[in-house]
Amino acid sequence: MKPKKTIYISIPLKCCETWSINEAQKAKKHYEKLGFKVYNPNDLLDQFRKTLCCEPTEFQQLTYTLKYLSTADIMVLFPEYPRSFRCTTEIALANKFKIPIIRVYSGGMLPASSTISNIFNTLQEPSDILLISNIMVN
Asked: For 100-121, what is the mean pLDDT?
C-alpha cells in the first residue's frame, strides 16, 4: 500500500489576511476529499499554540510550518499571497527539496482534481518526486 500523499497549502496566516481562513479551509476540504493529507499552516499553528500555551514568536511559527512543508509532496501556492518573507522562504524551501509548486490562479480557484491525480499517478517511487520541476497550473 502506497503512503498517503501530502499537500502543503502556502497561504497567508489568518492573523495577516482575513480571506485566507476561508480559502485555506476550502482548499483543505477539496484535497482531503481527493484522499490527500493536507497541511494548512493556520491549523498547524493553532495546534502549536495549544502545545506552547502561548503565542509563538514569528521565528517559531516559521520554523514550525517549514518543518511540515519539508515533508510535503506538493506545495499549493495561492496567487494573493504577497511576496512576503514567509512566502519567499516557503518557495525557496520547496525548490531546495524539489517539491513541486502548483500556483493557483483566478482568485484562489483550486486546480482540477485530475491535475493533482495526474501528477501523483506519474510518481512510481518517492524518488520520482525529484524528477518533477515546478508546475504551473492555469
From this structure: 61
